[in-house]
Structures are given as structure tokens and as C-alpha cells.
Amino acid sequence: MTNHPRRRVLGMALGAAALAGVPVFASEAASAEVVDPVQGRPEAAIPDPVPVSLASYFDSDGLDTASAHDGDFDGSGYCFPGDQLPSGRVVVDGVPFDFPLSTAGVKNNLVALGQVIALAKGNYVSAEFLVACSYGSTGGPAIVHYADGTTTQASLSGADWYSGDGPITAPFRYTPGGGTDQHPVSIGTGRVWIDPTREAVSITMPITNPAVAGQSSLHVFALSLQAAVAGKAIAVRVAKSTTSRLTDGGAQVVEATVLNLGTTWITPVDRAMVTVQAKNTFTTAPALVAWLAPGEEARVRIGISSHPSVPAGTAVSGQVIGYDRGGILDKRPTSLTLGVPDYQPTDASLGTHQSPYWFNDAKFGIFIHWGVYSVPAWSPPGKQYAEWYWNWMQDPNNAVYPYHAETYGKDFNYDDFIPRFTAEKFDPRSWLQLFVDAGAKYYVLTSKHHEGFALWDSQVSGRTAAKLGPQRDLVRELFAASRRYTPQLHNGLYFSMPEWFNPDNPWMGHPPRNPYTLEPVPYTGYQSGRDFVHDYQAPQMLELVHGYDPDIIWCDIGGVNDSHHVMAEYFNHANKPAAGRRTSKEVTINDRSGDFGA
What we know:
The protein has eight helices and 31 strands.
């Protein structure tokens, strides 16, 4: 048996150095000999994937409708809403599938339990699947059988349907009683590599669990086979414009997925590359594909620029072309959005933003918890967060409650730690050198944790390190040192959306109080009596955006917020030159800024 796992190479745009065998990302300055794609050999015939019927293998009914509730996808009686999903032929990521119907009493998916799926004997490069998992992501080895008696093995797995982020998504699921659970559920894709030099005859499914409550099961809804092409052949499967750039201030990126459908390797000698053609647009950085095995796919990044007269956000029709020294190998028509228009405070607009390539490619970052809680710096080791000291000491059943009374006294309030938070040994340059020596590509500092104590000079609060405790703008010192001494590091800030005991919006239900007497105590430095979101939380976040220009904002907890407007401002600020930098830059934010609110 040949063990050949699925290989999906992400972001594999290769520059001139790759032609010498060293894979690197192309940049605007990369020089490459570009072959005129209209010259050379005739364009190769690229076969489309062919759907394969699985109806005879279906053993589970996972699709219900508003009129018929006879299915049970997960063993608990929950089902996909078939009337919210496609039926019949559907194209997902460039692959056509036959999606099953949600007819009452008819099975529509198989639970992977080692079934052997017969294939029409032929040469293929891949088997493409529509899959979803119940009770957690799962999968396992799928075995491809060939006419000569040999086999290969590759992993087939899927994401949990309740993650709701697959390419086929429904806005809710049906509950056992016929009601609805208003949470997105989705079906994703899976891929199994097939050796194109051998004739495949069948695929054995992985062995997961039956669809019962509490056990992870892999469900398969559809299968399509991609036929191989003798010799060299590159297929452009999916192409789309993005709001990302190759580098800070660099060319806009068009992403494309290319697949080697041939029976031979693509090597540097072939000079295979991918470019974009569209009106008022030219390719500044073609994606050079130096190495691609038969059946292997790669997601490549093509840098494009549009004419200065074209407004950002202009939609055009174009095509992504794959070719080598001999001429065109494949081309795919695609709609492009040129440039990056200003983000608007809407889901649709903010949803076009994607995480930067530098972040996706980074393997290691460092998170720094530092605040007033660093003074007591205590909790039972391995049991709870020490930075939650103030909240833990409110609970008579928590170990911090008696520890604080015995160590500091019952009359010693949490804010009495503030004068002891001096940061007298803080040396930002030594911190940064430690990060670099450790191999980190970015760091994230807690600009303000749940205690509400800001480490920067906030103008909307007196509860800050600049006015109390160390009386220093610790964020500015760290960022300034990073930009001077370690410019290769990306600078990030954590921001807690709520605060435990903020008098205007106490997360824990009450303003500060002595946990032993329950008498009120001051929220040191805070100016109370304002709208928590619009007069305090959002202005603080925008102070960080405009005053400190972070590459990452890492929010926490969520709750009430004005995240639509804050994120739009953050992305727009990054998308144009600002104080201290001459170009736009690529930034990211996590998913904990809370439920969007006006």
C-alpha cells in the first residue's frame, strides 16, 4: 500500500528563486520571463469533474423539510433543512456535484463505516466529496483500490456541521420536534488523492461511528471524480479577487486554485505560471508554480494592479490563465473586483476582509498578560487564571478568597494593588529580543484586561497606567521599541470588550465592592455616568487604532459593542497611509468582539 495523504498547498506563489528549487513567495519586484499565453501549442482539453451517484450507498436521512420531519442526521433527531439547501446539480469550489433531494422517507447521505464505493474503471487524480460531521470533526484513512491490485491511502475528514462555515450553509437546523434551532449548519468539502498512472476501481470509506448521540460521525452527501490527462495539464479550478495584498502597500491579490491533472510532474523546467487578464488590469506578480505532483493542487497568489483611473471596487470580467513554455494549459473566466474600496459597517462589507498572508504564514506568536493582576499574581497552579484574581476573590468558595484575606487583609481592596504596579523593571527592548530569539513572528499585549485598567494613555478614562501606577504609556513604549529594534515583528493588542465591575455596565452584575463586607468601593480613575459603548468602549478601541496602529486587535468576551463601526474604521485606517508609515498595511482582528450592535 502506498500511503499518500491529501496534499493541499496553500499560498504557493513561487518567485524566481523557486526556479532554482527554493520555494518562495513572488513579490512585485520578482523578475520572471512571461510567455505570451496566446502563442505556442493549442490549449489543452481539460475535463470537468464528473458526479458519481451514491444513491445505492445512502443509509441515513439527514435532510428534513418544513412539511416532513422524518430524518435524523446526528442520532439526536436534528436535521439539515433540505428546503434551505440546493438540490440537483451544484458547483462547489469549481467542482460539480449531484446534491441529493430531501424527499420524505428517502436516504440522502452515507455514514462512513468502511463501505466500498465502486468506480467506473479509469485514470483519475482525485475524488471530491461533500461531507459534514455530527458531534465533532472526524474522519480517517480512505483507501483507493486499483485494477492491478495495489492501493493508496489518503485522509478524508470533515468539519462539524454546527460550525456553520462550509460552502453549503443553511441558516438553521430542524429540531427533533419539528421546530428550528436558529444557528447556521453547513456541509463542506473533502478530497482524496488518486494515483493518475493507475486505473482506479473503488474507494473504501474511512471507519467512523454510527450516527448516534455523542459520537463523531462522518457523513458523505456527494462524490465527483476528476479524470486525469496524459502528459502535462494544469486546471484552474477556482479563482477570485481578494481585498488582500501581497505585501504591505503591494499589489492586490487574486487567489486561484490550480490542480495538476497530468500524469507527470510540473517542474521548474516547465516555467508554469498563472496570470490574470482583465480590462484596465495587468499582472504585476505572476504566480510561478515550480513543483506540482500529479494530482496535487495548490492555492496561488497572483498580484495585479489596475489603472489609476479605475475607482476601487469596480467590478470587471476577466480570466485566470495557467500556462507553461508551450502555451496555455487552462483558463477560467472569473468576476473581479478591482482595488479595495472603503469598508462599510455592514456584515457584507466587513465579510470581504480576510486575514493577512503574514498572519496565515506565521507559525508562532506570543501572548502577554500584564496588568494590575501581575502584582498578586496568584491562583492555584494549573486550576484557574491568575489574571482573574479580582473576580476570583469575590467568591467565598474560591481559593483566592481566603488567600487574599490572609495575605493582604480583608480591608485591602483590589485597586490598592495599583500603586504597587510600578513596571520599574520594564525593558521593552529586552522583551522584544526575547520574542525574536524564540522565533515569534508577532506578539499580542493585553492593552486592557477585564479589570478595566488600560496600559496606554487613554483620554476617555483616568484608569490607566499613564495616570496611575507606573505613570507610563506602556503600549507606546513597547510599540516604539518594536518599530525601532524589531521591525520584523507584528504588533498586536488584546482588548477586553466588557469589564467585570465597570459601574456603567458591570459584567458581573454589580459595581466594585469589598467581597468580605459587600460595601461599595471606588473604581479608581474611572469617570462614571456615561454610555458604556459609545462614550467609552468604542472610543478606547479607536484610540488604539489611530494612536498606536496595531497589526492585530485581539478582542475578548464580546457583549454590547459597536463592532461594525470600529472594525470598518480599523480596516480603512490600515488601507491607507498613516502617521509613521507611507503605505497601506494588512491587519487582522479575531472573532470575539461580540454581537454586532449599532
